[in-house]
Structure prediction request, 410 residues.
Amino acid sequence: MDWNDSHDQAAFRSEVRALIDSGLPEGYDSGGDWVSDRKSEDAERRARAKAWQQALADKGWVAPHWPKEYGGAGLSPLEQFIFKQEMTEAGAPAVGGQGVSQLGPTIIVHGTDEQKAEHLPKILSGEVNWQQGYSEPGSGSDLASLQTRAVRDGDDFVVNGQKIWTSSAEYADWLYVLGRTDPEAPKHRGISFLLMNMDTPGISIRPLIDMAGFRTFNETFFEDVRVPASNVVGELNRGWYVGATLLDFERSNITGAITSRKTIQRLLDYVHTEEGDDRSRLNESIELRHQIADRYVETEVQFNFSFRIISMQAGGQIPNYEASTSKLFNSELTQKLARTGTQVLGMYAQFWGSDDSVRNTYDDPVNPYAPMKGLFTRSYVRSVPSTIAAGTSEIQRNIIATRGLGLPRG
Prediction:
């Protein structure tokens, strides 16, 4: 494996850095959320979301992995890796949300010409933001047991049911939803992939507040929601396989390693400051020093898992259990980093970064006793579901065992 850029890759990396240096709006240099900014009541946040979307659009980089014929940049897998690496290093937010990363590629593969013409341009322009409606109460890891019903009525399907863990549904214009269209079929069959406009009567959302006080997820309810039959993507009753295509895009994570690298480096930088030296426990425990060393090594392992996946894609292979290995390792590394950070900071890690009792954003007033603005306190609490979201660790281990190691199903 060659970790070095070729001449052309180095030139492309410089081009990406130049765009970030010239086009990234103020306020995004330390991270931001384009999805919420585009609908913010704050005019400045809306303006920066639009400006960043336009800067990327001018280069064709809103959807760098889409084919050029659909408005993407048609970048090679390794160019995509470089692009995401530089974006993550700079803290630059992705534009287009799940529409770019998940739904768009799925429509390109399974959608009709009419669906492509209607939805792909609006994703690229930032006009429409998409979110996912998959999980249900009691149907998470066993997603195929979902019970949301979609019954044909003339030119429409009438949808009734409930979804849960609908990330950022409050910012969504459209949802893509798995619904059961044939209740008599085996559970992996009889499911269809539906596109829903959030303005359709009968759709309602209810926020779920996480342990850190953030509204990250929602419950979504469907009461006699009428969805045109033309909004079914792929074959009727074959939506499970359409959804599986989408999850392949979701699980090929190549940004987690960079985020983990930055996290451990921030901790290292902090403990070497005067304040960090005073507030950390490194002088008390050699074990904590060993933990930091272990986390540092693990971030490099994660980078190589991600690089392996992109190298496979560059060679025309389709990652399968390799993507599960990367997802499993990354989600558990996220928890380890948070735990190590709180242990290093000791009693100071009890302070939230915010003085407010409800922590809705990372811009709340900072508690002066909270090291690193409460980064590890918050990440410790918020890391709990990382081994559940996007496929539990148990499911990932089963995939690795059966598809990777060839072990029999239990």
Q: What stands out?
A: Residues 130-236 form a domain with the Butyryl-CoA Dehydrogenase, subunit A; domain 2 fold (CATH 2.40.110.10). The beta strands are 130-133, 149-153, 156-164, 174-180, 191-197, 203-209, 215-228, 232-233.
